[in-house]
Amino acid sequence: MYEARQKEEILLQNGDMGEGIAFSNLALIKYWGKDEGVQNPSTSSISVHLPLFKTYTRIFVKGRFKPDPFTHFTHSTHFSDKNPLSLPLSVMTQQTPCSLKLESFLDTFFRGWAPEIKVHVETFNGFPTACGIASSASGYAALVKALGHLIQIEKWLEPHEVKEWMESWSRLGSGSACRSISESPFVYWKKETFHQKMEDLIFHPKYQKLEHSIALVNTDAKELSSSDGHKNAPTSPFYEIRRRKNIQDCKELSEALAEGHFSLIRRITEEDALLMHGISLTGKLKHQYFSFKTQSVIERFLFLRNEMSLDEALWTLDAGKNPHFLFMPSAKPLMERLKLEFPEMKWMTGFSHL
Ligand code: DP6
Asked: Which atom of ligand 1 is closest in space to residue 137's alpha carbon?
């Protein structure tokens, strides 16, 4: 691959196009805080994919011109509740200059061998962005898949190397994106002493019936980005406590997923969400991602779960205001009651079964 680039065997020219699709993912054990190094997570994390929350990205080569760093890349986004793949292409209207983060990512990608390239990126998101539904995860994963397609990565690398290549590049864009490269439902981003590796987790067949709902409490962009949240995390007294628990939590969660032990999955997932938000609240910035409404929905969920004795349901919350719920069909009546109690609230699902 490196040699091919050096010898200019990877040629890009005006009109070349690459495309990629990726799903978002929801962390059961979260990535929260980074160690020294490049996108080096302080702990391992485990996620479930959200196949109905997907991003479709196309990247077009617009010729090779002399570089002008701030007009290199343009970026179109379109948000729709509909399946992004069913959208007619004519709906792509909004054209925005690409964000500095995306620009610097593309710049890093092309710098070594096509520094003068000009590309146009189009992104379709089937769900609200930047509000705790991990749009950066599906966004960077889809972008890297599109870049791989553009440079015909399969020609240069073995299939397992292609996957590793995509995981490494997407992690540079956004850490959680590396969990969106695999199409497996449960993905383990494992931190080891000197490196990181990705694993698809085996799961009990009963989880093919697992369901997901998210309460859209507020879809405005979050006030503190996850990147800033990661920086704040080590300043909390709970940070080291969570880090120490992480190895055992990941081991137990992997086993519980394989064995179908829902109560253990529930305990570990809810505890990890509480610790993540505890860390955010007690770090130097004392930042609260959730709102009063978020708390009310979770509080009612916990009350109803107890009252109706339907315990195969759990909640979790990422860096945003919108709580996620995962539940087995046995707990459907609980979710129906919860939705009735918040009639004004919009709900979405990332999957109704895996
Ligand atoms: C709360 O992956 O968005 O969603 O690597 O800085 O882009 P960067 O952070 P990001 O962090 C995700 C935080 C989280 C938990 C998780 O998905 O594991």
From this structure: 2
